[in-house]
Design goal:
The protein has 110 residues and is mainly β. 0% of the residues lie in helices and 54% in strands. It has strands at 3-17, 22-37, 41-47, 50-60, 67-76. Strands 1, 2, 3, 4 and 5 form a 5-stranded antiparallel β-sheet that branches. A hairpin with a 4-residue loop joins β1 (3-17) and β2 (22-37).
């Protein structure tokens, strides 16, 4: 089966300095995905998952040209995720992620 997939994204992003060494970064993507197969063409578009990140400047060169930064961030699931379409579909052909909880009934046998 032949298919063509196209993944396009536009992002709105910004970085706000809180102090001389600490800043907050955020990005919000808007996705345009398209899949063409012999049976049908599928198009999805919409807001993806919000990324929030704190960035801290660890080192700065004497001439202020080079920096070493560290950061930690989270991904906030805002994009739609179609559970029905998960089997047999490229996971990238979704607008967002899914969070799954493992059932306590799954046990490993000795």
């Amino acid at each position: 089966m032949t298919q063509d997939q196209y993944f396009n994204t536009i992002q709105l992003w910004g970085k706000i300095p809180l102090t001389k060494k600490l800043s907050v970064y955020a990005s919000l993507p808007f996705h345009f995905h398209e899949k063409k197969t012999l049976q049908e063409d599928i198009r999805i578009n919409g807001i993806g998952d919000l990324n929030l990140m704190g960035i801290y400047q660890l080192l700065n060169s004497k001439d202020n040209i080079h920096q070493l930064n560290g950061g930690v961030g989270v991904k906030v699931p805002l994009g739609k995720f179609d559970e029905k379409g998960i089997s047999g579909v490229n996971p990238s052909f979704q607008l967002g992620i899914t969070l799954r909880k493992q059932s306590s009934d799954s046990k490993l046998s000795d």
